[in-house]
Amino acid sequence: MTHAALDGLVRVYPAEDGPLQGSGLVWAHGGGFVQGDLDMPEADAVARAFAARGAAVVSIDYRLVGDGSGRFPAASDDIVRAWSWAHDRAASLGVDPARLIIGGASAGGNLVAGAVLRMLGHAPAASVAALPTGVFLAYPTLLAEQPAPDAALRAALDADPAFDHFPPARVRSMYETYLGGPVRPEAPLTAIPGLATPADVAGFPATIMVNDDVDELRVSGELFASTLMAAGVPVALSTEPGTTHGHLNRPEEPGFGRTIQRVVEWMAAATA
Fold first, then answer.
1. For the chain, counts of helices (H) and of strands (E)
2. What is the pLDDT of residue 189?
3. What is the rounded CA–CA span in Å between residue 249 and residue 235?
């Protein structure tokens, strides 16, 4: 049975029997920094899927810009606070702290990547007991101004305008809303992690990134993955075939189960 903790900031999903027994996931849903909650499938269904496979899950109800309180660094602070709480209480959650990872989807992926950069000492720095053992990023948005997609992705987006959710103007506006101001030159690295250099991500934990197939945000994810690889970070990078942005919010689609299984296998190896 799930329960709320940390003054309602998190919902805890106890582990069931499964291959990930003894491991844990601290998880942040997406929603463009302005929407989303713990009951949306990208939060609840994902948490239940990992709990059913043996991982205790701490799902974060971080502050949103849409409710007037979530501008940077407030939501990022919530991620760091939830991580610290989960790590400090790992034993009571049935989790080996060395097998606790952090992850997020879409804007939640941004928040998680930025929080880990804060843990590595980038401003605003965060004092935490330990870094996550691993990071799971699902179709993250990591750049306010991202390069144009390649010809194949551009053609796929043009084939059905309904898939083209993130043109440059919309992405920039999303980040300006999150920051409460312009994206240049004031925006900090920890709010726009895709700006990181290999030196910036030195020490970043092993990472699995699963991007959507027909999704312009895939460009920022792939660029960040390349930066991690250049820094020597172990990265498992994949694109879930046949998906559009946000497939973990649609558990009825086959891509949901494929991604969960992909990450379960990675977690089992990464936290062995």
1. 7, 8
2. 95
3. 24
Tell me the per-residue pLDDT of 91-148, one tens digit each, with 9 for 90 and over.
Answer: 999 999 999 999 999 999 999 999 999 999 999 999 887 999 999 999 999 999 989 9
Q: Is the whole-model pTM more than 0.85?
A: yes
Q: Pick the closest to residue 91 from 3, 7, 22, 8 (CA basis).
A: 22
CATH of the domain at 84: 3.40.50.1820
Q: Which domain holds residue 96?
A: 3-270
The tokens 């059913």 sit on which residue?
Answer: 52
DSSP 77: H
Whether the CB-CB separation of 205 and 134 falls below 8 Å is answered with: yes
Calpha distance 100→55 (Å, rounded): 9
Domain count, the chain: 1
Q: From edge to edge, which strands make up the β-sheet containing 100-105?
A: 3-5, 10-13, 56-60, 24-28, 100-105, 134-138, 206-214, 235-244
Residue 151 has pLDDT above 80, yes or no: yes
